[in-house]
């Protein structure tokens, strides 16, 4: 996240630079297609409770909150592309769900409102610094929003907290507790797994090697990487909250609308190369989406249900 700076914004077409040991494969052909499995998706107003577990710094907090705010609020109309346009692709899944009658015919893709309704600071490390989903996620949620069942918790951990299941293929995850209540868990990769969850700002431990890396616009690799992980997981959760909605692959290892398009940020992307993005001339930071009040973000590709392919803003 960063405020808009005066000056020319440069474009960099990273697909012109070869990655080491990998050809120009179409990333969308390397993953299963997303299909509908008959279940509900989330719509209407999504009221989120951000539970900051551990001592999370101000930059990361501000970056994440500003991203969520930008999903529905546009800034300067002259600045393109928009975060809202990215979110509209997720909203378009509503038209792919059967039913809805006359109301749906007139408005097949109503707005899905994202509202940060509550923020909680849990800096005591009450449940320790090594958390397991089965044991601690329900406890943290019940402690902080037990009397507000309509809130969807997003648990965001500090850099010195290790969350089970993150860093091993996923940098954030979503699931269900209680009576099908969805939640998101978002880890901070700064200490635990920069080599797995900070690409394209860092080299990866396993996978394609690149000859260059993008610079985070916020000047903090973990902060910008956490926005990417949250965006990916939010797309997955909204379109497949109960594991009966839109996904590809198997029921036990589903790939959602965001996760199926992993490591694609612009046109021309291929393994080890994120594709075309904007480069800010004053900071050399990378972005592909303009948000609210001058904020800018690097957002991942998502699956477009109309074209049956991964789609990017650029």
From TrEMBL:
Q: Which UniProt keywords apply?
A: Apoplast, Secreted, Signal
Per the UniProt entry, the signal peptide is 1-23
Does the record bear Signal in its keywords?
Answer: yes
Q: Where in the cell is it found?
A: Secreted, Extracellular space, Apoplast
Q: Which InterPro entries match?
A: EXORDIUM-like
Question: Quick one: a GO cellular component term?
Answer: apoplast
* Family label: Belongs to the EXORDIUM family.
What PANTHER family does this protein map onto?
PROTEIN EXORDIUM-LIKE 5 (PTHR31279), PROTEIN EXORDIUM-LIKE 6 (PTHR31279:SF13)
Q: What is this protein called?
A: Tho complex subunit 7/Mft1p
What is the species listed in this Swiss-Prot or TrEMBL entry?
Hibiscus syriacus (Rose of Sharon)
């Amino acid at each position: 996240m960063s405020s808009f700076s005066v000056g020319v914004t440069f474009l960099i077409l990273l697909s012109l630079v070869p990655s080491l040991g990998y050809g120009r494969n179409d990333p969308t052909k390397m993953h299963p297609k997303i299909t509908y499995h008959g279940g509900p998706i989330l719509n209407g107003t999504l009221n989120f409770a951000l539970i900051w577990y551990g001592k999370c710094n101000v930059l990361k907090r501000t970056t994440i909150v500003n991203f969520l705010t930008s999903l529905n609020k546009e800034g300067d109309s002259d600045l393109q592309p928009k975060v809202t346009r990215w979110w509209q692709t997720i909203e378009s899944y509503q038209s792919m769900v059967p039913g809805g009658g006359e109301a749906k015919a007139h408005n097949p893709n109503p707005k899905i409102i994202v509202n940060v309704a509550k923020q909680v600071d849990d800096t005591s490390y009450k449940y320790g610094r090594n958390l397991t989903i089965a044991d601690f996620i329900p406890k943290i949620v019940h402690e902080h929003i037990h009397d507000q069942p309509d809130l969807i918790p997003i648990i965001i951990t500090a850099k010195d907290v290790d969350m089970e299941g993150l860093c091993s293929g996923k940098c954030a995850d979503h699931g269900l507790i209680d009576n099908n209540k969805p939640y998101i868990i978002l880890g901070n990769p700064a200490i635990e797994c920069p080599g797995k969850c900070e690409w394209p700002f860092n080299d990866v431990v396993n996978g394609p090697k690149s000859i260059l890396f993008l610079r985070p616009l916020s000047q903090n690799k973990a902060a910008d990487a956490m926005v990417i992980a949250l965006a990916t997981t939010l797309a997955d959760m909204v379109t497949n909250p109960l594991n009966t909605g839109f996904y590809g692959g198997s029921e036990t290892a589903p790939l959602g609308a965001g996760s199926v398009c992993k490591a694609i940020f612009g046109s021309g992307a291929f393994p080890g190369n994120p594709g075309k993005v904007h480069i800010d001339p004053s900071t050399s930071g990378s972005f592909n989406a303009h948000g609210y009040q001058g904020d800018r973000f690097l957002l991942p590709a998502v699956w477009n249900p109309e074209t049956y392919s991964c789609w990017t803003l650029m």
